[in-house]
Amino acid sequence: MNPANPGRTARTPWIVGVSGASGTPYAAAVLRALLAAGESVDLVVSRAARLTLLDETGIGFRDAHWRSDLRAWLARGADGKPDTFAAESADIGAVRHWAAGDLAAGPSSGSYPVKGMLIVPASTACVAGVALGLSKDLLQRAASVTLKEGRRLVVAVRETPLNGQTLRHLVALDEAGATVLPASPAFYAGATHIQDLVDFVAGRALDAAGVPHTLYRRWEGDLGGGRTTTHTHYPNSAEG
Q1: pTM summary value
Q2: Edge-to-edge strand ranges of the sheet holding 95-99
Q3: Residue 228 has pLDDT above 70, yes or no
């Protein structure tokens, strides 16, 4: 309950940090699934991520127009087609956006209540910054706070190959309590579309966070089961 308003439940969001690594469709899939699960989201998009988003989708993410830009982003499929997902399927009202340079934002403090944080995708620069505690922007600061408060931190690293320095940073994050989740899609779920591969990685990130979803077919011990699965790629899409 909210002590200032006993009749109102306190908002306790998931922080979603989007860094500059390639893989903005992974972030969109995670955001759609969190909202579909009825979760609140605090969104932090790094400056580098905005360049990647523009390059991968053609969408410019602007602080002053973040709601319309986010809606356009979440409606876009992993194949780049606009309006793949119905715009009204995402409850943008459950999202709060914080500018990456705002180090006075709520998520910069451990007293700000959140359930945890997912960094999707995580660049090697972001991994290094979090592992070393640099807190050069709000994304890194929020991740450091998540670790120090003992909350769940899922780091979906998206880079290949990985050099020794990055591997050491990933080990440091693991030892600090984070879940290191390489953005590596599997094929046993019977993927027939790029969105299936994206949704698998997004689903595994949500599994690590403990958030229920139906993004991919889970393994049930049935060899070849993925080949007989009937896919409905976009259950909330404008295409049906």
Answers
A1: 0.91
A2: 95-99, 41-45, 14-18, 116-122, 152-157, 179-180
A3: no
Separation CA 33–CA 212 (nearest Å): 9
Half-sphere exposure of 213 (CA within 13 A, CB side): 25
Please, how many CA atoms are within 13 Å of residue 21, restricted to the half-sphere of its CB? 24
Taking 80 as the threshold, does the pLDDT of residue 234 lie above it? no
- Cα 44 from Cα 187, distance rounded (Å): 30
d(CA 48, CA 51): 5
Structure tokens at 39: 């979760």
Please tell me whether the peptide bond between 161 and the residue prior to it is cis, using omega within 30 degrees of 0.
yes
Q: Crossing angle, helix 24-36 and helix 66-75, to 10 degrees?
A: 100
Helix, strand, or coil (residue 182):
coil
CB proximity list for 60: less than 8 A, separation 6 or greater: 50, 53, 54, 69
pLDDT score recorded for residue 237: 46
- What the block records as the tokens of 210 is 């403990």
CA–CA separation, 170 and 44 (whole Å): 21
The chain-wide mean pLDDT, for the chain, equals 91
Q: Is residue 119 within 8 Å of residue 84, measured between CB atoms?
A: no
In DSSP terms, 43 is beta-bridged to 16, 97
Both tokens of residue 183? 């953005």
